[in-house]
Amino acid sequence: MQIKSLALFATAALAAVNEPCVGSGGRAGVCVTTSTCSSSGGITIDGACPSDASNVKCCTKASCPNGSAGNCRWASDCAGSTLTGLCPGPAQMRCCSSSATGFGGYSAPAIPAVGACKAVAVEGAKKVVAAFPGRVRQIYCTRACACPGTSDHCCGKAIDYMCSDAGGVPTMSGRQLAEWAMNNRASLNLKYIIWGQRIWSPSDGVKAWTSWRAMEDRGDVTQNHW
Is the whole-model pTM more than 0.70? Predict the structure, then answer.
């Protein structure tokens, strides 16, 4: 997830095949073909994978055989043990033994110094990390590009918050951080937020992430800010 400070939280437009989505009952889901979902014992909902073909829908599986609480979710968000081969989607969608949320548990990330990374971004990063201890694994601010460039990172005004176990690993954790940033937009001097292939600007008005503007599919979990 990314926060642009003028603070920024990042995401790109809605999920590509085998990428995350929010499915039935608000559960973590995966965008797969309806035939793949049904063969895996899952259920689909319409409208949660709008960038994909009509037969690609958000698939969830509420229960799976990994203890009494077995459920399918992204491995980075599981607070217990996981088993592969029991859930729809890629190998990172696994059968989790715990019903607990399981987000985070990371050591405090290093906060970039003020310099190439501007003070507004640094101060925003400190506030987000303080509000969600253990939830942010790593922080990025600048990129190797000349300011103004094509990204706010080029000028040190944007922050990317890595909220999963590793790069390229999906998580649903970012939604809570993204909506918190929206609700605290004034203190963060917020310009926009991106998370989960959706973008929000202060002029959009306060609303749930599911109602944020959709963004294009950028091709992978990281670029789509999952």
Answer: yes
